[in-house]
Design brief:
alpha+beta, 2 domains, eight-stranded mixed sheet, two-stranded antiparallel sheet, elongated
């Protein structure tokens, strides 16, 4: 379950206005919401590495609901998806044609339909240097059963921005990649009432894509930046201390 953006915004405003410490506009809130969501999302990866090391030393609890490494992995599930890449003949490569932002590539599967039976193989991701070295050697030349690939980028029409390319040897008929996508930017949208007040518009708003368990972390993170905007060091300090305590509790 994702975090409702209106719940976060109203809570932030309530805390700021309770002691008349200041006000934050929807535009300012939206900018901070994007920043804090991105910080939390990107922290999943080093946090996951740290917790995985604890698992490997058997120092972490492995009961059904109390394994912190599994909890971090669970929070990434909404951003994980198997994506079919499109063959681009001009560049002899495969491109992602969707609208979301790719963050990480996971398992890459190449399918060769000209073989009998059809072959679907895990594809090893290498550097461009290693790819060139391996494909040029008769002894290590990749096969349909053991293909290799590397990533590069190019501007491919009709797009005007750089796109990710995956070059595979031997070239398969189709390519499927397990991807992690970056979260969409949250946005609190509104209409203006008769008194000039902001009225929440749920139809145009975009909720946070983070798990509901991150609601408190989002609020504290946004409050920290709000304190900087309105130049209130007490808010910055209180929010930072609360966020730090929660992080220490999760990792201890």
């Amino acid at each position: 379950m994702a975090v409702n953006i209106n719940s976060v915004y109203t809570t932030v405003l309530y805390i700021l206005n309770k002691e008349q410490r200041g006000y934050i506009t929807p535009a300012e809130f939206n900018s901070l919401a994007v920043q804090v969501q991105d910080e939390i999302f990107q922290a999943y990866f080093p946090d996951g590495n740290q917790l995985n090391r604890k698992n490997q030393t058997n120092s972490d609890n492995d009961t059904e609901f109390f394994n912190m490494f599994k909890d971090v992995a669970y929070k990434l599930h909404p951003f994980e998806n198997d994506q079919t890449f499109t063959k681009n003949i001009a560049n002899d490569a495969f491109i992602y044609g969707g609208g979301r932002t790719l963050f990480k590539l996971g398992e890459i599967m190449s399918t060769y339909t000209e073989t009998v039976p059809n072959t679907t193989s895990v594809t090893q991701l290498t550097s461009k240097k290693d790819y060139t070295k391996i494909t040029r050697s008769p002894l290590t030349k990749p096969t349909n059963s053991y293909p290799i690939c590397y990533t590069t980028n190019a501007v491919i029409a009709p797009a005007t921005t750089t796109q990710l390319l995956i070059k595979v040897s031997p070239t398969p008929d189709s390519l499927e990649v397990n991807c992690i996508f970056a979260p969409s930017n949250p946005s609190w949208q509104f209409s203006v009432g008769t008194l000039g007040q902001y009225i929440y518009n749920s139809a145009l708003s975009v909720n946070f894509e983070l798990d509901i368990s991150e609601q408190t972390t989002l609020i504290m993170g946004i409050l920290k930046y709000c304190g900087i905007i309105i130049r209130d060091p007490e808010i910055v300090q209180a929010a930072s201390q609360s966020a730090q305590k929660a992080e220490i509790n999760e990792k201890s």
